[in-house]
Design goal:
Elements (H helix, E strand, L loop, with lengths): L4 H7 L2 H17 L3 H7 L4 H8 L3 H9 L5 H10 L6 E5 L2 E6 L13 H7 L2
Antiparallel strand pairs: 1-2
Helix pairs in contact: 4-5
């Protein structure tokens, strides 16, 4: 005999249904892409692009990327009205909010050794 989840849900008290709906919303919010976040904020790609000083096409490509620089993520979320916090989680302690991270990603300089070889 199969169980219909909707029927089970309907039989719950209103308070229980609200708790379940609230938790479901929390779970969905924990797993949002940049695109989902932008849509949840009711923003268009064009509006975010204007705030970033880039084209709408650039925002579209940005939303499809799987790997972003931290500075790019911060700028994009800031353009949506938010802020980025980095949390380190370990199995043996409470989560730690990382602070004092640089605002812009620092790219390593080319070593002088490499330049010396190239100039020979």
């Amino acid at each position: 005999m199969s169980v219909n989840i909707r029927e089970k849900f309907e039989k719950l008290s209103p308070a229980a249904r609200r708790r379940i709906e609230k938790r479901a919303a929390e779970i969905r919010a924990e797993e949002m892409s940049l695109r989902d976040l932008r849509k949840a904020r009711k923003l268009t790609q064009a509006r975010v692009a204007k705030a970033l000083g880039v084209t709408q096409d650039s925002v579209s490509r940005l939303e499809k990327r799987s790997d972003l620089l931290l500075s790019t993520l911060r700028k994009t979320v800031k353009a949506m009205g938010g802020d980025v916090r980095i949390i380190a989680e370990f199995p043996d302690r409470a989560p730690v909010v990382l602070s004092e991270l640089p605002d812009d990603d620092v790219r390593p300089r080319k070593s002088s050794r490499r330049r010396a070889r190239g100039s020979r």
